[in-house]
Amino acid sequence: MLTGDGFPLAVQVSGRADGPVLLLLSGQANSHDWWTGLREPFEDRFRVVTFDFRGTGGSRGPVGDWSTPWFADDAAAVIQAHGDSAVVYGTSMGGRVAQHLAARHPALVDRLILACTSPGGGHAHERTPEVRKLLADARVRTLRELFYTDDWAGHSHLFGDPTMTAEESRAHLRASNRHDAWDVLPLITAPTLVLHGTDDRMVPSANAPLLAKRIPGAVLHLHDGGRHGFFDEFTVDIQPVIDDFLGE
């Protein structure tokens, strides 16, 4: 599909054609592949929709001064192309995008799930210089340590889109780093579930209570021992929490 400014977005749809829409928003510098193995548990109930953020996957075009509000408006266009509204589940940078989406387009968001994410800005708890140095290395071994516990032995789809150019990657990093939704979080009206792993060093878990207190009526769930990819590693434990929230 084309956005209002003519940028081509690659959109993927699976699950029940007649089901309510569930929009899944991936992390920074990742395409919809982020959700491989994670979208399937929703497909018996929902029309599951993902899209590639600008600069990832099949969504390629001129690189702009992208931001999380910009990506949020893209997400709003995707929802409107597939239904009247959606349940929105955003992880990491996708959670930052989801915050602006729910605040800017409240009629489009029925329920909101935010995982391993941050409000950004001056109130956020930032990663340590040590972690920043590890991420600058960006080896798979380093990412495994930040995303998963030592007990994990699976295959991950969370380590970035290898087709991105350096310019596209920098644009994503800028968008994530500049995120600040603090002032608009109280505007969110959708019932909200905040999820986080207690051992997340990429986005410290101290951000989760900030979000839960700032968003009216939000519910907080912390997974003990989970790192940044806790929603993948511990999906057997996290999926029932999400299902209970969506079934309320």
Could you explain the architecture of this structure?
There is one protein chain. The N and C termini lie far apart (33 Å). The protein is α/β, with parallel strands linked by helices and 248 residues long. The longest helix is centred in the first third of the chain and has 15 residues, at 68-82. The chain has a single domain (11-247), classed as Alpha/Beta hydrolase fold, catalytic domain (Rossmann fold). It is built from 8 helices and 7 strands, in the order E-E-E-H-E-H-E-H-H-H-E-H-E-H-H.
List the topology elements.
Layout: E1 11-15, E2 21-25, E3 47-51, H1 68-82, E4 86-91, H2 93-104, E5 109-115, H3 129-137, H4 140-147, H5 166-177, E6 192-197, H6 207-214, E7 219-223, H7 230-233, H8 235-247
Parallel strand pairs: 2-3, 2-4, 4-5, 5-6, 6-7
Antiparallel strand pairs: 1-3
Helix pairs in contact: 1-2
CATH-assigned homologous superfamily: Alpha/Beta hydrolase fold, catalytic domain
Number of helices: 8
Task: Enumerate the strands of the largest sheet in spatial order, edge to edge or round the barrel.
Answer: 1-3-2-4-5-6-7
CATH topology title: Rossmann fold
- Return the CATH architecture: 3-Layer(aba) Sandwich
Rg, nearest Å: 16 Å
Assign the structural class, choosing from mainly alpha, mainly beta, alpha/beta, alpha+beta, or little secondary structure: alpha/beta
Coarse morphology: globular
Number of strands: 7
- For the report, how would you describe the main beta sheet? 7 strands, mixed
Helix content: 25-40%
Give the overall pLDDT as a whole number: 96
Low-confidence stretches: none
